[in-house]
Design brief:
Helix content is about 45%, strand content about 10%. By secondary structure, the protein is α/β, with parallel strands linked by helices. It folds into three domains: about 100 residues, Conserved hypothetical protein from pyrococcus furiosus pfu- 392566-001, ParB domain (Alpha-Beta Complex); about 120 residues, Arc Repressor Mutant, subunit A (Orthogonal Bundle), CATH 1.10.10.2830; about 50 residues, no CATH class. It has a five-stranded mixed sheet. The longest helix has 18 residues. The N and C termini lie far apart (about 70 Å).
Length: about 290
């Protein structure tokens, strides 16, 4: 992880091959005015570049201790050359910099900063980024939390997506489902059921609530398959289900059973249908009273 520090302007070296070959003087002057008013809002990204001889020859950036023959300590700008030039005009004596050990690390840091500026970074992309930093760069959880300003749960959820749910990861990376839907699917450990839920979400637009209902349905089937007692009973309790007289979806009455018909609807859509009827005023809130249409 980079170290952020204030570095005297005299110790900073311009990049040997600036990315911006031509710089608009007017825009540079506007940036200098902004720095005078608000300060340097975005730090420069630099790497060690030590002067190792009297003629100013530079040693390559190497992680760890500088060479024994170092004469002067310098820092080469990797990103922020334009901000550096504007800071000269603004008269800053010290500039805030993120210091990386090597050029490769600095380039990776530039990529990270670019990603952080993106508003459309998906949870799948975030998970890959967190995992790369942890496994390849050795970043700890506190470092990730501090750098990205995210909670441990936020980071762990996205890393879990990448490591444990490749099927869900693929659909999230393709932006086929949103993060709420993805988290609902990840509640199910059964790969075949997850494939069905993903198809329902992508092809048929199943909401996260519908997916949660499907997960609950899977759990119920698993309990029946394993001959386990229901979660609300003691281990050896006998479950006695008493048949309940069905109610009319329209009026909530359970009389006149002879005129009831079968209304085809998926089991996981029943709750959504009932909520819809309540919102439209067709079916009143079930308060123990029965009402007919007005």
């Amino acid at each position: 992880m980079p170290e952020t520090r204030m570095i005297p302007r005299a110790q900073l070296l311009e990049p040997p091959l600036p990315i911006r070959m031509g710089i608009d003087e007017q825009a540079l002057g506007d940036l200098a005015d902004s720095i005078k008013r608000h300060g340097l809002l975005h730090p420069l990204i630099v790497v060690p570049a030590h002067v190792t001889s009297a003629n100013g020859e530079l040693a390559p950036s190497v992680a760890g201790a500088p060479p024994a023959e170092v004469l002067q300590l310098r820092w080469e700008i990797v990103d922020g050359h334009r901000r550096y030039l504007a800071s000269l005009i603004a008269g800053l004596d010290e500039l805030e910099c993120k210091v990386y050990d090597t050029l490769d690390d600095a380039k990776f840091g530039v990529m990270l900063d670019a990603n952080m500026m993106r508003q459309d970074l998906s949870p799948a992309e975030e998970g890959v980024q967190f995992l790369e930093l942890a496994e390849s760069r050795g970043w700890s959880m506190p470092q990730l939390m501090r750098y990205f300003g995210r909670s441990e749960a936020y980071i762990n959820e996205r890393v879990t997506l990448v490591k444990n749910f490749p099927d869900v990861f693929r659909v999230v990376a393709e932006r086929g489902i949103n993060w709420t839907q993805a988290k609902a699917v990840m509640r199910c450990p059964d790969k075949n059921w997850r494939a069905y839920m993903l198809d329902q979400a992508v092809t048929h637009g199943a909401s996260s609530r519908t997916i949660v209902n499907l997960v609950d349905q899977w759990k119920t089937l698993q309990l029946a398959k394993d001959s386990q007692p229901a979660v609300h009973t003691t281990e050896h309790a006998v479950i006695i289900q008493q048949a309940e007289r069905p109610k009319c979806t329209w009026c909530l009455r359970n009389d006149d059973q002879a005129n009831f018909i079968s209304l085809p609807v998926h089991s996981y859509h029943v709750r959504d249908l009932q909520d819809f009827l309540k919102r439209t005023g067709i079916t009143p809130e079930d308060s123990g009273e029965t009402h007919g249409p007005k």
